[in-house]
């Protein structure tokens, strides 16, 4: 039977909003959400919003700014967003040893964003909802959970290779 690790709120290290300092291509980020929204603005060539996202200190403000990106195209975003979220989380977890340890400790489970409000990145169900325990009754796609699970497996296999050499 499939086992799950549920997460949702900012306090969880698996949340996009969880505070975590990391650097990608010389740019400093304070959360995976900031990275995602900044990359979204850059993807669509909106440097003004991109700069505002880097200056904003709260994930909620960063998300609001991300919704204002000029030239946004849903089809283009859907083709790129999973790669962007993967890359941001890869940097977040590999540059923060404690977060990496926490991620690797979930081995053997599928990570699930138990957000009752998000049917794209989460499953559209709260952790307390019994339907969350069965993938077939999820109301959402769990993109974030799937990305984090894949990232953990990729990092975990790299760690295993290093420990055997």
Automatic annotation (TrEMBL):
It holds the Pfam family NADAR. Gene3D superfamilies: YbiA-like (1.10.357.40). Residues 6-155 form the NADAR domain. It comes from the Bacteria. It catalyses: 5-amino-6-(5-phospho-D-ribosylamino)uracil + H2O = 5,6-diaminouracil + D-ribose 5-phosphate; 2,5-diamino-6-hydroxy-4-(5-phosphoribosylamino)-pyrimidine + H2O = 2,5,6-triamino-4-hydroxypyrimidine + D-ribose 5-phosphate. InterPro entries: NADAR, YbiA-like_sf. This is NADAR family protein. It comes from Paenibacillus taichungensis.
């Amino acid at each position: 039977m499939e086992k799950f690790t549920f997460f949702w709120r900012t306090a969880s290290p698996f949340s996009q909003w969880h505070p975590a300092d990391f650097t990608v291509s010389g740019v400093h980020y304070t959360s995976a959400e900031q990275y995602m929204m900044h990359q979204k603005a850059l993807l669509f060539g909106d440097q003004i919003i991109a700069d505002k996202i880097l200056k904003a200190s709260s994930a909620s403000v960063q998300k609001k700014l991300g919704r204002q990106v000029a030239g946004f195209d849903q089809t283009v975003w859907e083709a790129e967003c999973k790669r962007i979220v993967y890359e941001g989380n890869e940097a977040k977890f590999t540059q923060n040893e404690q977060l990496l340890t926490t991620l690797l400790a979930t081995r053997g489970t599928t990570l699930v964003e138990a957000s009752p409000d998000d049917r794209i990145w989460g499953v559209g169900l709260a952790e307390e909802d019994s339907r969350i325990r069965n993938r077939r009754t999820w109301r959402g796609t769990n993109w974030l959970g799937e990305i984090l699970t894949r990232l953990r497996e990729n990092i975990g296999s790299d760690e295993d290779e290093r420990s055997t050499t």
